[in-house]
């Protein structure tokens, strides 16, 4: 715990609070140990910057409080095309210039804004060849349907982007991790979308879509990510229920891990997922999740923006 405090520059207001955080830290280490023992992939769990937070604090500050409520996504325009049975075995849109750098939402439940913005950035690149770094703060301030740091839904955010006419660059509307008065400069729009669609919750189809049309958006149960460090996570159902969605993330690629050592991840298919907790978390801000088992509910509500 002392090393954790030094590494992450943690200070507490008094000795009693430090003792309370130490107890929470111990509980999180026990959770990490259990996840490590049960994981069927190659993931490593342990100390992260979130290791002194309770589950409730973690969900309220870094996940999406609105997704924790009962919700029914509205009907979306379905994908009309039939998936091809032949597509790339490995795809990583970072290598093709279609993904902006990892960002940091801070102590704010705004993953919905970061996920949607990342999807729009990539889809704009797919259509125009230009990668723009867009402003999440525009959505926090000007999206009248969602709740800024208190959470939001990707489908309402897409509709708000269409209503606003597009998005501006991030340097023109810097992120402050709080809702402020809307000051959207409509004459400085850098990218826009025409509509958005749902994608069938089939991971074969999802991978084919990513390979041919670029990154897509998904909602997942990210509770175990509080203590995730690296590797391919393949959690058991009871430790990552697909019915407890709480985080919005872009899927920017996929692959398969091969190893010559038995039991060390040989032939494990995975998704490459961009997160919004900064580049110091996970695998330089990314994480990998098993592909093919709808792990953590990743195949329940995939969708994407469309740029014509």
Jot down its keywords:
single chain; 308 residues; alpha+beta; Cathepsin B, Chain A; six-stranded mixed beta sheet; 28% helix; glycoprotein
> Kindly, what is the distance between the CA atoms of the first and last residues, rounded to a whole number of angstroms?
52 Å
Number of separate structural domains: 1
Strand tally: 11
Strand and helix order? HHEHEEHHHEHEEEEEEE
Helix amount: 25-40%
Largest sheet: 6 strands, mixed
The helix-and-strand class reads alpha+beta
Report the mean per-residue pLDDT as an integer: 93
CATH C-level category: Alpha Beta
Give the name of the CATH superfamily.
Answer: Cysteine proteinases
Low-confidence stretches are none
CATH topology (level 3) name: Cathepsin B, Chain A
CATH architecture: Alpha-Beta Complex
Number of helices: 7
Overall radius of gyration: 19 Å
Shape: globular
| Portion in strands | 15-25%
InterPro entries: Papain-like_cys_pep_sf, Pept_asp_AS, Pept_cys_AS, Peptidase_C1A, Peptidase_C1A_C, Peptidase_C1A_papain-like, Prot_inhib_I29
Protein name: Cathepsin W
Keywords: Disulfide bond, Glycoprotein, Hydrolase, Protease, Signal, Thiol protease, Zymogen
GO molecular function: cysteine-type peptidase activity
Describe what you observe in this structure.
This protein has a single domain, classed as Cathepsin B, Chain A (Alpha-Beta Complex). Helices cover 28% and strands 15% of the residues. With 308 residues, it is an alpha+beta fold. The strands form three sheets. Strands 3, 5, 7, 8, 9 and 10 form a six-stranded mixed beta sheet that branches. The chain has a three-stranded mixed beta sheet with strand order 2-4-11. It is built from seven helices and eleven strands.
């Amino acid at each position: 715990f002392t090393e954790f405090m030094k590494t992450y520059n943690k200070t507490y207001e008094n000795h009693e609070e430090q003792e309370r955080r130490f107890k929470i830290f111990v509980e999180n280490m026990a959770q990490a140990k259990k996840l490590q023992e049960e994981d069927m992939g190659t993931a490593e769990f342990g100390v992260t910057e979130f290791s002194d937070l309770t589950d409730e604090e973690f969900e309220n500050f870094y996940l999406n409080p609105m997704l924790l409520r009962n919700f029914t996504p509205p009907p979306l325009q379905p994908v009309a095309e039939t998936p091809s049975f032949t597509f790339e075995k490995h795809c990583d849109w970072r290598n093709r210039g279609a993904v902006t750098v990892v960002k940091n939402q801070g102590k704010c439940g705004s993953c919905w804004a970061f996920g949607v913005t990342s999807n729009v950035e990539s889809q704009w690149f797919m259509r125009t060849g230009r990668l723009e770094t867009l402003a999440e703060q525009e959505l926090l301030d000007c999206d009248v349907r969602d709740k800024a740091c208190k959470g939001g839904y990707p489908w309402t955010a897409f509709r708000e982007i269409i209503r606003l006419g597009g998005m501006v660059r991030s340097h023109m509307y810097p992120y402050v991790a709080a809702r402020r008065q809307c000051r959207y400069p409509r004459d400085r729009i850098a990218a826009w979308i025409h509509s958005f669609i749902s994608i069938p919750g089939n991971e074969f189809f999802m991978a084919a879509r990513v390979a041919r049309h670029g990154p897509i958006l998904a909602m997942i149960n990210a509770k175990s990510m509080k203590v995730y460090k690296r590797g391919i996570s393949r959690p058991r159902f009871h430790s990552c229920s697909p019915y407890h969605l709480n985080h919005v993330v872009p899927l920017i690629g996929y692959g398969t891990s091969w190893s010559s050592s038995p039991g060390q991840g040989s032939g494990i298919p995975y998704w490459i997922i961009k997160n919004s907790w900064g580049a110091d978390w996970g695998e330089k801000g990314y994480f990998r999740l098993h592909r093919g088992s709808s792990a953590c509910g990743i195949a329940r509500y995939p969708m994407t923006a469309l740029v014509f």
